[in-house]
Design brief:
The structure holds two protein chains of two kinds. Chain A is an all-alpha fold. Helices cover 73% and strands 2% of the residues of chain A. By secondary structure, chain B is mainly α. Chain B starts with a helix and ends in an 8-residue tail after the last helix. In chain B, α3 runs antiparallel to α10, α5 packs across α6 and α5 packs antiparallel against α10. Classes of the chains: A mainly alpha, B mainly alpha.
Chain lengths: 440, 371
């Protein structure tokens, strides 16, 4: 490059224009890809709406389901973002679960002592402390990432249990395994669209009334939008905003580039003067903080109480959502939404779950047809058979056992992993030990 | 002299970690207003009674099996985080089959153990197959399968394996007939018997040692774990090795629930113990995957669990031992890492101090040196 600057030669200009062509081509390619994703999403939504209409199960797209989905997806999504920060810097973080446990305990304790927002901050701090410990073990002492993560889960569980006995046992409403009830940070409705107040004026609930008509597609869209704007917790809003924020920091700032370079090729990053170890410490503290926030959300906002074992493995699920989303923020959020949706349907309406089978059947058959036209016979065969089975299941039964629905996101993640490993691209140096000055 | 210090250093790591954990938990106790020395003395006195020793051995057996299961996979560089799911599925299947058949005493027990091992093996094979055929990391698939196992088990339990004759409405399988129980074999005193299943753990421990360190298969397995490339170059096919390693690990994992099933509960219910899989990782780490080391780790954890029971009577939270366990794991892995660095440095110094080999070195290039 420095050569080119001094010589305004034809060859140099040719190289520039070729580079431009390459960028233009890749832009066009990514624009096409974006269109395809958008079209697929739209198609699936129309299908879902049609299924809702045909089977008369409004809960598939009701604002209530969407609201519950959001509430259940937030802790998973935050954990997934936490995993993304850590793994993008090259450190595998199984310890998310433990960081989340500390988030639930310290979040609830802070909320009980100093109010909900202080609780959120203290919960984040609890997670960050565990993130720091993970960094100490994996970065400074070069301990295997998974071993350190498992140790952190054990330790965090012990700390939370001990502190509960020590702090909550003799408190009214508390006990050896739970805190007293705490207050949430509060919710709001969007004015006009979802009936929120505006300067003391009780605005109409436009989306709500649209939803009640059960019109094809229109009411479904209204339901989804209302679910995302009605009775929305401020913390949920914060969590949603953290997704684009993470993307922006990771892919649009120098700091993000440095963090990612540590995950791709730490020796190269080091040779360019990136302080790899410091970057990893920072990334792990952010990771722990996000997991802590996830825990604080569970305790303060979702349950209004700390309970032992509250996280129920959501840290692990977050990790799965991150992998499902190919180590990308929006993908991780989509993965979290999938897990949240399955849980939400289960909680709200069992018959809607049964209707979902029809949706799966049609979607799988369409996908099989597309794959067949592209010449991918075996993929087409497998998805086609799965689609037929789902259809058969729909028409021969009236109900799906709860456990199958709860299992679905895990099975889907497993299938995605098994089918799409070629397309998944983890950071190149993810999980490998590295010491400054080591020879590659 | 130098060669002696290396094993000593390796032994020093876990001892230092335990002492460090004692210090930390002592500090925690002191900060929350209890006398740590009093607490530790109470634990020691209670933990060394005859009844306690019997109970500790009983508690250590599932921990040991779980530790060995993890260690087998670890020896070939695989993380079997899925012991948890494998033993849950295996325990349910074994409980169901065990209650469904009628057989003479020894055969009955053998069949139950076999079903457990086969179920654990099959469930454990899935991450292995997915790793080999699709290149998915076994930790992720194991985590998914652990969760799937919980739902599969609760579905089967609630819909197909439920004991309908039970009137308490508890979700549990039918009781296994006494011919399928493991007897209490060792008597230490009043109320202090040890269940015979400790012998199964012994057999597993010895087989683990023989298989991994005394057979060609074990050599190949360890070689694949230490240096997959070199193992491949010497003719070990990595794919089948991974699947076999996971299946073996899963088979032993299947036994983890057996001490509870055959010696204590005799059926599978929702209150069947959980978390033994993760505890096994702790135990294996403590014991450095060594068959005797794992036993020491299992006994240590069992001792902490049992002896902590006395603390509640004195108003000291017994949960302090969970913190202690966490600190032990984390500090033991750090201590091993540090010791490893010291050993490496020492070995480098030893090589440097060795007199250079006489004549050939002058004429020939040393191996690996740039020409």
């Amino acid at each position: 490059m420095s050569l080119g600057q001094g010589m305004p030669s034809v060859a140099g200009e040719g190289a520039v224009s070729r580079a431009d062509q390459v960028t233009a081509a890749s832009r066009l390619q990514s624009a096409r890809k974006r269109q395809r994703v958008l079209a697929t999403g739209l198609g699936l939504f129309v299908l879902l709406s049609t299924v809702r209409w045909l089977t008369d199960s409004p809960d598939l797209t009701s604002s209530g389901t969407v609201g519950t989905t959001l509430r259940l997806a937030v802790p998973i999504g935050l954990a997934a973002l936490g995993g993304l920060w850590s793994e993008r810097s090259g450190i595998v973080n199984i310890g998310l679960e433990g960081m989340m446990i500390l988030g639930t305990w310290f979040g609830a304790w802070g909320a009980w002592q100093y109010g909900p927002w202080a609780g959120v901050a203290i919960g984040i701090a609890g997670g960050m402390a565990a993130g720091l410990l993970h960094a100490l073990a994996t970065v400074t002492f070069n301990v295997d990432h998974i071993i350190s993560g498992v140790a952190i889960i054990t330790l965090a569980g012990g700390i939370a249990r001990y502190l509960s006995v020590e702090v909550y046992t003799d408190v009214p409403g508390g006990g050896a395994t739970q805190s007293p009830r705490v207050e949430g940070v509060g919710t709001f409705d969007l004015p006009i669209l979802s009936g929120g107040g505006l300067f003391g004026w009780h605005s109409p609930d436009v989306l709500g009334s649209l939803e009640e008509h059960h019109w094809l597609i229109v009411s479904d869209l209204a339901g989804v939008l209302r679910g995302a704007t009605h009775n929305l917790s401020y913390l949920t809003l914060l969590a949603i905003l953290l997704v684009p924020l993470t993307w922006w920091i990771m892919w649009r700032t120098v700091f993000g580039l440095r963090v990612r370079s540590c995950g791709e090729h730490p020796t190269a990053a080091d040779s360019l003067g990136v302080p790899v170890n410091r970057m990893r410490y920072l990334a792990l503290m952010i990771s722990g903080g996000l997991a802590g926030l996830a825990g604080a959300f569970l305790a303060i906002e979702a349950a209004s109480i700390y309970r032992q074992g509250q996280t129920q493995g959501r840290g692990f699920i977050g990790l799965a959502a991150m992998i499902f989303g190919n180590w990308l923020p929006l993908g991780a959020a989509a993965g979290a939404a999938l897990f949240g949706f399955a849980d939400a349907l289960n909680l709200r309406d069992k018959s809607a779950v049964h209707a979902l089978l029809l949706f799966v059947a049609v979607a799988a058959l369409v996908y099989a047809a597309v794959q067949f036209r592209r010449g991918k016979r075996s993929t087409a065969l497998v998805t086609g058979v799965l689609g037929l089975l789902a259809g058969l299941w729909f028409f021969t039964t009236d109900e799906v056992p709860v456990e199958f629905v709860q299992m679905t996101p895990y099975v889907v993640t497993l299938l995605v992993l098994a089918v799409a490993t070629q397309r998944l691209r983890p950071p190149a140096h993810d999980g490998k030990p590295w010491r400054k000055g080591q020879v590659e | 002299m130098q060669r002696l210090t290396i094993p000593l250093l390796r032994l020093a790591a876990p001892v230092a970690a335990v002492l460090f954990a004692l210090t930390i938990s002592g500090l925690v106790l002191w900060l929350s207003g209890s006398d740590p020395f009093h607490a530790f003395k109470l634990m020691w006195d209670f933990g060394t009674t005859e009844q306690s020793i019997a109970s500790i051995v009983d508690r250590a057996v599932p921990l040991y099996l779980s530790g060995v299961a993890f260690a087998i996979a670890f020896k070939m560089g695989l993380f079997n985080i899925g012991v948890e799911g494998q033993y849950t599925v295996a325990a349910l299947m074994a409980a169901f089959v065990g209650a469904a058949v009628e057989l003479p005493p020894v055969l009955h027990v053998a069949l139950i153990l076999l079903v457990a091992m086969a179920s654990g093996m099959l469930w454990g094979a899935i991450p292995g197959v997915l790793k080999v055929t699709r290149g998915v990391h076994e930790v992720i698939t194991s985590i998914m399968l652990n969760n799937i196992a919980t739902f599969v088990v609760s579905y089967l339990l609630a819909n197909h394996f439920l004991d309908r004759s039970d009137e308490t409405l508890n979700l549990q399988t039918k009781k296994i007939a006494p011919s399928g129980w493991f007897p209490e074999l060792f008597d230490l005193g009043p109320n202090a018997t040890i269940n015979g299943i400790v012998l199964v753990a012994l057999v597993i421990g010895v087989s683990y040692y023989v298989l991994i360190w005394r057979t060609r298969f074990g050599y190949d397995l360890r070689a694949s774990g230490l240096n997959p490339l070199a193992a491949r170059a010497s003719g070990v096919a990595p794919g089948p090795m991974v699947v076999k390693g996971m299946m073996l690990s899963g088979a032993v994992a299947g036994l983890v629930g057996m001490p509870i099933l055959l010696g204590f509960s005799h059926n599978y219910g929702l209150d069947f113990g959980t978390g033994l899989g993760f505890a096994g990782i702790t135990v294996a780490l403590l014991g450095r995957n060594n068959p005797v080391g794992i036993a020491v780790g299992a006994l240590l954890l069992a001792f902490l669990d049992r002896s902590a029971q006395i603390l509640d009577l004195e108003d000291i939270p017994k949960e302090i031992v969970v913190i202690m366990e966490g600190v032990i794991v984390l500090s033991v892995v750090i201590a091993y890492e540090l010791v490893q660095r010291v050993i490496e440095r020492q070995q480098r110094r030893m090589i440097a101090e060795e007199p250079p080999p006489a004549a050939p070195a002058a004429t020939r290039q040393p191996l690996g040196a740039p020409a």
